Amino acid sequence: MYNIAVIPGDGIGPEVVEAAITILDKLPIDFNYTYANAGDKCKEDTGVALPDETLEIAKKADAVLFGAAGETAADVIVRLRRELNTFVNLRPVKSLQPDKYGDIDFMIVRENTEDLYIGDEELTEEGAIARKKITKFASERIAEYAFKYAEDTGRKKVTAVHKANVLKLSDGLFKESFYKMAENHPDIETNDFYVDATAMYLITNPLDFEVIVTTNLYGDILSDEGAGLVGGLGMIPSANIGDNSGLFEPVHGSAPDIAGQGIADPVATILSACMMLDYLGESEYARKIEDVMIDVIRQGDNVTPDLGGDASTQEMAEYIASKL
Predict the structure, then answer these.
(1) Where in the sequence numbering do the catalytic residues fall?
(2) Which residues of the chain fall below pLDDT 50?
(3) Closest CA to 132 of 181, 79, 170, 88
(4) Most buried among 128, 204, 303, 308, using CB within 10 Å?
């Protein structure tokens, strides 16, 4: 039995989480779900966006499935990543529908513990100051993870993304750490690009990428750009992995403009659940779900409006479940 902490969160979070669980429940695997509150509504009701009780449930679980974060995202999902000691954020960018680029399939390996994204800021008389911290330890750890991921998944190339021509000390250290770790993996091809150039290359030649390893903020931005290549944020899952914890969430936000309408695309959350299955050692079932879902998406009938169909979020999930 796997104990799963379920945190639906805000907006469309409860809808897409329900869809993912509908599919998980069709598998011959015993899941014990413990639901916990967090987010905007939780803060309105209790005064706290991430209650201690929720945090304890997450820490004790075998894995955490998260829905969507609203305005309290920094207090909820960013804090959860930190409290669970998840140092890597995996964001796959993969074509699930036919597109003009061909078969896009690359992984963004994002460092999860430092850089500007952790929100270390202060107000001064002169204005606001944000601190960008890049350490040798975190940079080498994330680079090593990216190389090991490439080897484990049969990928041949890892690309580091930085801005070391301007941020010579911080991003310079990240680049240096990347090439130091590359020495331990001579069979993997390596290269590096500035983040602004990468933003262009993702549009002009996305098929050239296999694994991208980068810092926290750049990883967040580039993964949203990657989503645009393959159909939007509703198609991109993510996994936050630490030595002893796994937190799985769609990349999209809470989408309050469509919350409660039953039209939210559940694909990113279903794929996040598949990444959770991989983490739990149940990859066979993860691939089965992915294969069935890709077939359903490409058929184009029993899918949500953004994918060209007229099914509701739950109807799509139930149809996928019925095909397993």
Answers:
(1) 117, 163, 196, 220, 224
(2) none
(3) 170
(4) 303
